[in-house]
Specification:
about 220 residues; alpha+beta; 6-stranded antiparallel sheet; 3-stranded antiparallel sheet; 13 strands; about 15% helix; elongated; binds 2-acetamido-2-deoxy-beta-D-glucopyranose; WAK_GUB; polysaccharide binding; signal; Wall-associated receptor kinase galacturonan-binding domain-containing protein
Length: about 220
Amino acid sequence: MDTKLKMLVMLCLLLLTLVSLVSSFHNGCPKCGNFEVPYPFSTNENCGDLRYKIYCNNGNLEFPSLQGFHYKILSIDTNTNSLIIRPPMILKDTCSSSDLSQGGIRLDETLPFNISKHNTVLLLNCAESILRSPLNCSNNSLCRQFEDEMEEGSGCKSRLCCHYLKDSSMNSHFIRVRSGGCTAYTSVVNINPQDPIYQWNYGIELQWLPPNPNCVLENNP
Ligand SMILES: *[C@@H]1O[C@H](CO)[C@@H](O)[C@H](O)[C@H]1NC(C)=O
Ligand SMILES: *[C@@H]1O[C@H](CO)[C@@H](O)[C@H](O)[C@H]1NC(C)=O
Ligand SMILES: *[C@@H]1O[C@H](CO)[C@@H](O)[C@H](O)[C@H]1NC(C)=O
């Protein structure tokens, strides 16, 4: 390395240190109830990165969908850049998800979040037309066990239900429900069908793309 480059690297490192020092003083958001709000999440205009906007509501963190529906955040893992939100409640008498009027969950595609590949989605109370899809709607689909054994799914038993792994062949910004189609859903993170149904990790795992590093080495000789 020539000296000019060395100087550049040193300067860059110094800058990075300064930036992280400054951000640790000014950019971290205050705790929300008992929850830390890790960077880059932002609970108000003065902290975090505004592209990672979440809400602090009565000591609970909430993640907003594109339509402005708020999902409770159950956990945040900064090592894997992922967070788990609580699936919407299922209203038992109508077997409908509380976000049915929004068409399910939709993420803003201009923001750095998507739905990860670790979610198994259970679609409930589906119309016959679902059988034309490639989803598993057989009598031993995992959704049957959910309906049979979990109180929350008990209002959904009379009609078809299906499950699928939300892998890369699926739209990663959307889980869709609608009246006339499937009216309710839930999701399980890293499902192990052998585990008892009540031990499944109910949630929707989202992933985020970290903000760009501030320091880019230019004019390399
Ligand atoms: C699924 O169960 C229903 C009712 O128990 C039965 O009528 C139907 O034939 C079964 N379908 C398959 C594919 O086993
Ligand atoms: C549907 O899912 C059940 C439970 O995981 C599995 O036993 C069955 O083989 C699947 N059926 C199809 C058609 O993939
Ligand atoms: C979601 O975003 C992450 C990080 O940008 C990326 O690695 C992953 O492949 C994306 N997942 C899907 C299902 O598109």
